[in-house]
Write a structure and sequence with these properties.
about 80% helix; binds protoporphyrin IX containing FE; about 0% strand; 4 helices
Length: about 130
């Protein structure tokens, strides 16, 4: 169960990141997201998969949140990631704000993945 969930989580996580980069590419280099509903619904389903498999893993491992700093840091960074990704791809008023938010979303994703892989809230910094 754990093995399956973990690999499912990691698969969702990397697919969702690949799509974030692809949507950024479309928005910034191709000048728009295009009207394809595929490009809004599929990422939403993937992100739901990331969250559900993540919370399931947490449940299966029975990790105590306040004794697991990397998980706490990861969840805090997740809030930033969701806000920044939405600002970049949906609500940002102009391209400058969207570009800054996009860079922040990519950095927060890298931090989350680093904290999870290294099991440390310091991620790559220590
Ligand atoms: C953008 C969102 C997320 C990213 C980028 C992400 C990234 C990752 C990665 C790369 C791993 C594998 C670590 C390894 O190699 O051992 C992992 C594991 C894990 N993630 Fe996530 N994750 C995200 C969201 C979540 C959420 C919402 C939760 C829910 C609490 C969660 C809980 C976990 C747990 C419990 C593990 C397993 C750690 C272990 O096997 O010891 N993740 N995550």
């Amino acid at each position: 169960m754990y093995f399956l969930l973990k690999h499912l989580h990691i698969t969702f996580v990397y697919l969702s990141f690949a799509l974030l980069l692809f949507r950024g590419y479309r928005l910034f280099l191709k000048g728009g997201m295009g009207g394809s509903p595929w490009l809004t619904r599929f990422p939403l389903a993937l992100d739901a998969g990331v969250l559900l498999s993540g919370f399931f893993l947490w449940y299966v491992l029975a990790l105590p949140l306040f004794d697991t700093p990397w998980l706490m840091a990861k969840l805090a960074a997740l809030v930033a990631y969701i806000g920044l990704a939405n600002l970049a791809l949906r609500f940002g008023k102009d391209m400058k704000i969207r570009a800054l938010a996009f860079a922040g979303a990519v950095l927060s994703w890298l931090y989350i993945a680093g904290a999870a892989t290294l099991k440390s809230a310091w991620a790559y910094f220590l």
